[in-house]
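User:
I study polymers; will you set down one protein's sequence and backbone structure tokens?

Assistant:
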Amino acid sequence: MERENPRPSASLPVFVQKARSASAIRIPAATDALEVGQCDSEPVG
């Protein structure tokens, strides 16, 4: 994984950069919830 993308982040507003850094912390929990939701809604295997 890339640590930082200077080009895209430079073109984004500061609040977007803060939101991205904040969401980066919550991404694992969000992906876990999404995976659980997908497993619940769609049968696996």
